[in-house]
């Protein structure tokens, strides 16, 4: 019997191939799951890859809720009838227009966020508020702390001397560290703290530079805790983004008690302060201020700023009465219509909504047969005020009609009403407040929607011209006669 010979290299290869097949590594099981849609992932991600929700991905099987042992409350709950309401009484700041927006003043322990564009006057207004609040005590010694993270104390004092905001009990500090700011509060023991601005203060306990989301949240939470525990009113200055919204996390607006928006054209002296959120008062009040080189002054009667000072009637102008909150403001709208040399006529607006102006132009062209299709149209408001409410539609229509026909409105005429796409004139809210403000300023003729006459009292000496359609309003407003 022959002995088997040695295996050849090919035999070795065949043996290796004939062995058990190699196993692929097991695919790891999903360890993270989205709480919103159930999408699974191997590693944690901040945003769900399926529903695009932020912060919804959590580890599978992780403890999501922790229990905390109960402790003895330092301040036990009391019946609601025994709560001292004197701690929630607003204290005037000495600036009546600012107090109007806040609902009568600042409540001790309240946190107010004042937001606005750079250079609009936030620091000037709050420095004036701080000085007046410091002088409003019984003996003129109400302690107020002004913390500036953007300017030095010398720069703040220079502005205070320019706007006459010097006070003996007004303390200045230029700090950017949160711990140092809290130390200044402990040392001064103020009743009011102004922080300019919350985006410039940083905490060493949180990573990142001052102004990011984590830093703003930590700084705001610490200041709010101090304000609530000690009953200190806090005014925070907030920056805004290029689209006008408040910079920083959205939770900042939820944490504070009052959110105040500072508005106005940088090329105009008029400034409007309106409350977007207010836990202690209404949100439909607006404060008007005049910003000049010597400071910022409240305007109790700003209607005269929005009227041209001419005495002769000019075609293409119409006066309307708008409601800013609960305050009626008499505003003038001007229109200019010229022949266009372009294939597409030009439409330009200033202080008015361009989309709404284009709609009114289309309604005039279709419903009132106004020859506007091949003409350039320019519309503007007087004084830099911005009109957003639909009650100014009728005044815009009459201004355009006067510019097209080159015929002025009768002297002393105002108009307000909403214009619909069908050409109808709809009623607006607060008609009698608008008429009372117009009568106070000397206007004796008003083009209004139907139904105003029977809805309430009309001021003496005011002639009402009711118009149900925009065509009727043009004929009766310009020619003082009804359509045929």
UniProtKB/TrEMBL annotation:
Region (Disordered): 1-25
Top-level division of the source organism's lineage: Bacteria
Motif RadA KNRFG motif in this chain: 277-281
Gene3D superfamilies in UniProt: 3.30.230.10, P-loop containing nucleotide triphosphate hydrolases (3.40.50.300)
Keyword Zinc: yes
Pfam family, one: AAA_25
Amino acids binding ATP: 116-123
Keyword set includes Transmembrane: no
Biased composition (Low complexity): 16-25
Positions of the RecA family profile domain: 87-240
Keyword annotations of the record: ATP-binding, DNA damage, DNA repair, DNA-binding, Hydrolase, Metal-binding, Nucleotide-binding, Stress response, Zinc, Zinc-finger
Region spans: Lon-protease-like: 376-484
HAMAP family per UniProt: RadA_bact
Entry text on domains: The middle region has homology to RecA with ATPase motifs including the RadA KNRFG motif, while the C-terminus is homologous to Lon protease.
Role noted for this protein: Plays a role in repairing double-strand DNA breaks, probably involving stabilizing or processing branched DNA or blocked replication forks.
Annotated PANTHER family: DNA REPAIR PROTEIN RADA (PTHR32472), DNA REPAIR PROTEIN RADA-LIKE PROTEIN (PTHR32472:SF10)
UniProt similarity note: Belongs to the RecA family. RadA subfamily.
Name of the protein this chain belongs to: DNA repair protein RadA
Species name: Fodinibacter luteus
């Amino acid at each position: 019997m022959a002995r088997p010979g040695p295996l050849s290299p090919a035999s070795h290869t065949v043996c290796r191939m004939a062995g058990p097949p190699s196993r692929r590594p097991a695919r790891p099981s999903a360890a993270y799951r989205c709480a919103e849609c159930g999408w699974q992932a191997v590693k944690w991600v901040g945003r769900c890859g399926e529903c695009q929700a932020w912060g919804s991905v959590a580890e599978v099987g992780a403890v999501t809720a922790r229990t905390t042992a109960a402790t003895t409350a330092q301040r036990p709950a009391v019946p609601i009838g025994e709560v001292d309401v004197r701690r929630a009484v607003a204290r005037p700041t000495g600036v009546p227009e600012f107090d109007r927006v806040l609902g009568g003043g600042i409540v001790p322990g309240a946190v107010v966020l004042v937001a606005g564009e750079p250079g609009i006057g936030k620091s000037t207004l709050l420095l004036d508020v701080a000085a007046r609040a410091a002088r409003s005590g019984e003996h003129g010694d109400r302690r107020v702390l002004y913390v500036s993270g953007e300017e030095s104390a010398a720069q703040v004092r220079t502005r205070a001397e320019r706007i006459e905001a010097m006070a003996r009990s007004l303390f200045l500090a230029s700090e950017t560290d949160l711990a140092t700011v809290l130390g200044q509060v402990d040392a001064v023991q103020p009743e009011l703290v102004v922080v300019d601005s919350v985006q410039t203060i940083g905490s060493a306990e949180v990573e990142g530079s001052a102004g990011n989301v984590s830093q703003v949240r930590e700084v705001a939470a610490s200041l709010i805790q101090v304000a609530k525990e000690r009953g200190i009113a806090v005014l925070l200055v907030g920056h805004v983004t290029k689209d006008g919204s408040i910079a920083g996390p959205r939770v900042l607006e939820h944490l504070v008690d009052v959110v105040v928006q500072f508005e106005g054209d940088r090329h105009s002296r008029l400034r409007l302060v309106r409350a977007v959120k207010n836990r202690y008062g209404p949100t439909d009040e607006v404060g008007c201020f005049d910003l000049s080189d010597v400071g910022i002054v409240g305007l109790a009667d700003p209607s005269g700023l929005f009227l041209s000072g001419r005495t002769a009637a000019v075609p293409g102008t119409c006066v309307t009465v708008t409601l800013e909150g609960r305050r009626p403001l008499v505003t003038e709208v001007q229109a200019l219509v010229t022949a266009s040399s372009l294939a597409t006529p030009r439409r330009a607006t200033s202080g008015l909504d361009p989309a709404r102006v284009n709609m009114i132009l289309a309604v005039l062209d279709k419903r009132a047969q106004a020859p506007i299709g091949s003409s350039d149209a320019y519309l503007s408001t007087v004084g830099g005020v911005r009109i957003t409410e639909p009650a100014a539609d009728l005044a815009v229509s009459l201004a355009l009609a006067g510019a097209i026909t080159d015929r002025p409105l009768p002297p002393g005429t105002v108009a307000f009403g909403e214009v619909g796409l069908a050409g109808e004139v709809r009623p607006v809210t607060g008609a009698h407040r608008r008429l009372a403000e117009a009568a106070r300023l000397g206007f004796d003729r008003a083009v209004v929607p139907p139904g105003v006459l029977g809805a309430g009292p009309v001021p003496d000496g005011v002639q009402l011209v009711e118009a149900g359609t925009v065509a009727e309003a043009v004929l009766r407003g310009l020619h003082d006669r009804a359509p045929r």
